[in-house]
């Protein structure tokens, strides 16, 4: 395995920052042990701030990629800190991977197979804790063709093609157990999405509209949101709330005082069905969402500013952005990666990324995963993962070869 010198230096700086933060936590709540590294702890000693059983706390983000071959069923985890790949299990043929930042879910006709990547973060608002543990297969949430998976700290919701969904206790899943708390049988269209301890459930409303109901973890209705979402397509979980794609824009749902409220973010123009977003891509928990706009280009939704922008880039194979002020990355079907300024749509960089032998079909299987400093693109023809420095003219920083076709990829540890 190899180490990246620049990341090692960054780790040292981050370690100092973490030490200061932990000291601050100790002063604030009185629960931090003095001298964590020395002496034996008595059975009655309080656990250190941020302690998680079975996990190692780290000073920097523990980024990992869960990779899958939808034909052979191979699933592996690539540690981006160490640079090594380890087998994680097997998924069903044709399965598609999605993630909630820690777990990878392989969705297929038999349900959703759950894999714990062993890398995650906990955001305490004024500081963040990063953890690493051994990656493992957890189990399967069974149902008829899993289509969507979304999570909060309390719940994971798996939505199936037959209009049902299962709510799963997220805390127990962290301990390696699949424990469904409810089955919902009246999902209209689109995904069920957790918001805190509740679940937002799309249900049929008058005409062709979709209403959203607030359900508890047992699936019992608690309230209905006033705003409707006609033609609901796709959803995204952001740091500040949940976004649903609608025919007239987006429906943004937040929680104030444990009470969900919704507001519409309109397109501000008529948008043909072929150019509407089907799904959203962003940095984990990010509030700048991107989506394909048919063959016309790419949508950028700034949730904080409540603003849509259409970048007329032409057809895109994949798209993503690290956030406001960061470039929008668009992988073209030719295998070329382009960077755009979201404010004016200007192209700022372009570089061939995929192997020259790549076809349009190969490009269509690529995704862009993105974090604070790097982007990752799976190159199925070359059987490689490319790490891109998007702040340096799309420079290819590293490439990781694998011994299978990485047709599926998600990033965790964020």
Automatic annotation (TrEMBL):
It comes from the Bacteria. Residues 30-57 are annotated as: Disordered. PROSITE patterns: PROKAR_LIPOPROTEIN (PS51257). Residues 1-28 form the signal peptide. Keywords: Signal. The keyword Signal applies. This is Lipoprotein. It comes from Streptomyces spirodelae.
């Amino acid at each position: 395995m190899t180490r990246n010198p620049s990341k090692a230096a960054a780790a040292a700086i981050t370690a100092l920052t973490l030490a200061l933060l932990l000291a601050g936590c100790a002063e604030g709540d009185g629960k931090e042990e003095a001298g964590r590294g020395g002496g034996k702890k008595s059975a009655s000693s309080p656990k250190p701030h941020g302690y998680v059983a079975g996990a190692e706390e780290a000073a920097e983000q523990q980024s990992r990629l869960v990779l899958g071959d939808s034909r052979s069923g191979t699933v592996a985890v690539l540690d981006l800190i160490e640079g090594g790949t380890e087998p994680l299990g097997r998924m069903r043929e044709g399965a598609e991977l999605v993630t909630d930042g820690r777990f990878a879910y392989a969705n297929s006709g038999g349900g959703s197979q759950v894999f714990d990547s062993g890398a995650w973060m906990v955001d305490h608002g004024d500081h963040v804790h990063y953890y690493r543990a051994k990656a493992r297969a957890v189990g399967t949430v069974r149902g008829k063709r899993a289509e969507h998976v979304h999570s909060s700290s309390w719940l994971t919701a798996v939505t199936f093609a037959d209009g049902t969904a299962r709510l799963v206790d997220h805390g127990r899943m962290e301990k390696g157990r699949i424990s469904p708390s409810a089955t919902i049988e009246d999902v209209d269209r689109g995904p069920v999405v957790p918001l805190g301890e509740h679940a937002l459930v799309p249900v049929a409303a008058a005409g062709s509209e979709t209403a959203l109901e607030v359900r508890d973890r047992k699936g019992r209705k608690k309230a209905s949101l006033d705003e409707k979402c006609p033609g609901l397509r796709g959803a995204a979980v952001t740091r500040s709330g949940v976004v649903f794609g609608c025919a007239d824009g987006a429906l943004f749902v937040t929680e104030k005082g444990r009470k969900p409220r919704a507001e519409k973010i309109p397109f501000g123009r008529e948008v043909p069905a072929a150019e509407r977003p089907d799904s959203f891509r962003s940095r984990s928990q990010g509030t700048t969402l991107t989506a394909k706009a048919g063959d016309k280009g790419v949508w950028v939704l700034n949730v904080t500013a409540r603003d849509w922008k259409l970048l007329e880039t032409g057809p895109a194979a994949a798209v993503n952005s690290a956030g406001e002020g960061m470039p929008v990355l668009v992988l073209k079907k030719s295998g070329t990666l382009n960077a755009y300024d979201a404010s004016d749509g200007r192209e700022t960089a372009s570089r061939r990324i995929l192997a020259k032998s790549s076809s349009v079909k190969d490009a269509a299987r690529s995704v862009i995963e993105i974090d604070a400093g790097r982007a990752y693109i799976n190159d199925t023809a070359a059987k490689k993962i490319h790490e891109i420095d998007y702040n340096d003219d799309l420079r290819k920083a590293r490439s990781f070869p694998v011994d299978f076709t990485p047709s599926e990829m998600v990033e965790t540890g964020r």
